[in-house]
Amino acid sequence: MSDILDEVLERIKPTKDEIGFVGGVVSEIIQRTNDAISQLGLTAKTMLVGSVARGTWLRHDPDIDIFILFKETLTREELERKGMAVARKVAGPAGEEKFAEHPYVTMKFHGIDIDLVPCYDVADPRKIKSAVDRSPHHQRYVEGRLTPQLADEVLLLKQFALGTGVYGAELKRQGFSGYLCELLILHYSSFSRLVEEVSRWVPGEVIDTLSYYPDKSEAKIIFDNQPLVVVDPVDPGRNAAAAVSLQNFSIFVRASQDFLDRPSLRFFFPKRVKLLTPAGLDRILKRRGTRLFCIVFRSPKVAPDVLYPQLRKTEKAIVTRLVQEGFEVLRSDVWADSISAILVELSVSRLPSVKTRIGPPPNISAKDFIREHLSSRNSLAGPMVDIAGRVIFEVKREWNDALAFLRDIMSQRVSFGKHVSEAVSQRYWIYEGEGLKEPLKDSGFREFLSEYLTRRLPWYR
Amino acid sequence: MSDILDEVLERIKPTKDEIGFVGGVVSEIIQRTNDAISQLGLTAKTMLVGSVARGTWLRHDPDIDIFILFKETLTREELERKGMAVARKVAGPAGEEKFAEHPYVTMKFHGIDIDLVPCYDVADPRKIKSAVDRSPHHQRYVEGRLTPQLADEVLLLKQFALGTGVYGAELKRQGFSGYLCELLILHYSSFSRLVEEVSRWVPGEVIDTLSYYPDKSEAKIIFDNQPLVVVDPVDPGRNAAAAVSLQNFSIFVRASQDFLDRPSLRFFFPKRVKLLTPAGLDRILKRRGTRLFCIVFRSPKVAPDVLYPQLRKTEKAIVTRLVQEGFEVLRSDVWADSISAILVELSVSRLPSVKTRIGPPPNISAKDFIREHLSSRNSLAGPMVDIAGRVIFEVKREWNDALAFLRDIMSQRVSFGKHVSEAVSQRYWIYEGEGLKEPLKDSGFREFLSEYLTRRLPWYR
């Protein structure tokens, strides 16, 4: 295993030259920020945080986070006005304003992505005013403990998470953040020990390095049975692994088990998905024999962290209505770029006209149930009694064609995400089977659909 | 309600003339039996039992049961030899030998069905050697308690059970025997009080007129949670309602509820099922949109009480395999005459090629599951992890065409009834959809299929 890890490190660890180059960029941008602060006559501190500050950035992927820290006495409005003034001045016309919980500026400088983020300089991390105020505390906690040796272990873990598909805490991904990777290495002290431990994790795992919770079951209750709880050392009320879904938790555990079993570079550098050609699409759809529907619409202009939860909510609403009507949904998924797509794969797209309505068991009155169905024009047979003694009717199914029903669902948009519902109400397309060749022309969608139809855990590709 | 009951009684109670005629036949047959016994130099008693003996026979449906009682000291072999000699002598060439638990003779005499049944004359009904030995005890118990007024109430109950489709304890029917109807009237003392009480029955009802079980929950346990327990007054270890299925129990309760709600002659004399024409069959199949399969074969030469349980077992085996393979079975049923039929109605007869195999949850090793599926040529996608954290594969479905799968099931005949399996191995036919016009030519099958496709509780027809 250690040969493999050496090889991985060889590939992902920044070279001296790269470190020198990034260091130069950092010095320059900090200098510029300090200059901007004094030119604007403000009182603020500049702080480099994140992976570049801690030496845990993956080669080719430096991401410089400059935080501009203001006194807590400022109002929110003052902070944003003054902070953004500094950031704009640093970035100049190259800057682009963004908005997560609060506004910030992003820019490219010497080819490197840089975020300029105003925040409060809060003494007690449990009393922060917004999530960004926590980053300086994370920075201080990690930099005081992370030796260069440990930083290498973090690099291995990040690449492992990346390769197995669970890296990133954004809502699109629901995986492991860089900070979480650092905390895990600080806890387990090496990548190889970490995979050993993770291979034995079960959902409900609690990691509490500073022993804030002597009773782990208490932590489980407080953190509401999340699959993974990693108590944030700078704020014991926060779960640093809150973003991790059960699915990604489980993938991470399986990856660790499989890696221990047969260590390989494939966990870090999986094969890429083979892109489907139109003919390949035909072939695979024929082999599956399912009915694959894809709902496409222009993506609403909101951040991915807003869009993805809405897409998933919409996916769930659609799947639930299909299932309630009797359609079997084999799998479904969502994807977004400039266009958004919701895939729904059905076993069968036409159901019979008749379906069974099950009424009360023998010990409950069936009077209303029977009266209601007898007077309905949709009753085909019944009342009868099944072998379990329940009264049943056979009634006409409201929807027996999946496409017609999908169009009805899309026109009603019940429980859809807000922005998704607005976008869909403008216009949407439903592609099915061979019709998917049309959206396949979009290279991003093509990658998504190719991965969907040949899905395997990345290290099995 | 009492007008209705008067009218029912008017229709079903034998007239004086009929009673006189049947009484004459009974006298004659008892005389003949006694003569046969003495002519053969045997020691035995003749006893009239059953509905004719108790005045609880429905007009046009007298059924004379003559029991020939021998001493307990005889061996089984002696009993059968001597008993059958008497019965054969009484019946002459008109007799037909039958076999239930033991041999007996049946004959038609002056147009009336007569059974001649040899049995042991056992003093203590709890020590009988076979079920037929119990009948004389039932006879003595009922005749000592049933006044002519109560006999009329029994007639009402029998016709009610007949009209609602739950009369008869034979395995084809799984309903209420004549003796059970008598016990229920002896317990509740009138038909109208009975329907009141039955309308409140819940599964697990225990009726114990002689209070053998002071603790009803004890009776429930002893009788293994049968839906209805009526402790046999002559043998507290026996449930006189053991034949009653949960389905028929529930129908009986619903019928009582509905009758109280709106008393009508329809509960006693329901409309007959309208027989389907070939064109009507087309119309109803189209309206249902389901795939109706009918497996037909020559009935094995066994009694209905042997055949029906085997048909139901076979039906269950077929339905279970279809469901396990992913086919949705809407309804199924069996029927037999000189041919036997198993109906299976599917929502859809073609499934996609792919199906999901769900593996272990996150806390269980998936190694074997993954290895096994990776090496299988049937895997189409996977391993992947679903949102519940379980490892899943998508594999090729073995059977996606219901008809081909049905033929495979019929060739394997796993868990089929023994005689059914033998009959099927000779030859069988599968009819589907419009093909059902072929067996529709059989008038018995036609009635069965017509009832199946327009099924309603009889009093709702």
Architecture overview:
- Two copies of one chain form a homodimer.
- Chain A has 461 residues and is an alpha+beta fold.
- In chain A, 42% of the residues lie in helices and 20% in strands.
- In chain A, the strands form four sheets. Chain A has a five-stranded mixed beta sheet, with helices on both faces. In chain A, strands 10-11-9-15 form a four-stranded antiparallel beta sheet, with helices on both faces. In chain A, strands 6-7-8 form a three-stranded mixed beta sheet, sandwiched between helices.
- In chain A, strand 6, helix 9 and strand 7 form a beta-alpha-beta unit.
- In chain A, helix 1 packs across helix 6 and helix 12 packs across helix 15.
- The radius of gyration of chain A is 27 Å and the shape is elongated.
- Chains A and B meet through helix 10 and strand 13 of A and helix 10 and strand 13 of B.
- Characterize the quaternary organization of these chains: homodimer
**Distance between the terminal alpha carbons of chain A, to the nearest Å?**
20 Å
> Main beta sheet of chain A: strand number and arrangement?
5 strands, mixed
Derived from helix and strand composition plus strand pairing, the structural class of chain A reads alpha+beta
- Shape descriptor of chain A reads elongated
Compute the gyration radius of chain A: what is it?
A: 27 Å
The low-pLDDT segments of chain A are none
> What is the β-strand count of chain A?
15
**Beta fraction of the residues of chain A?**
15-25%
Helix coverage percent of chain A: 40-55%
**Count, helices of chain A:** 16
Strand order of the largest sheet of chain A: 1-2-5-4-3
Q: What is the mean pLDDT of chain A?
A: 95
Largest interface: A-B, 55 and 56 residues
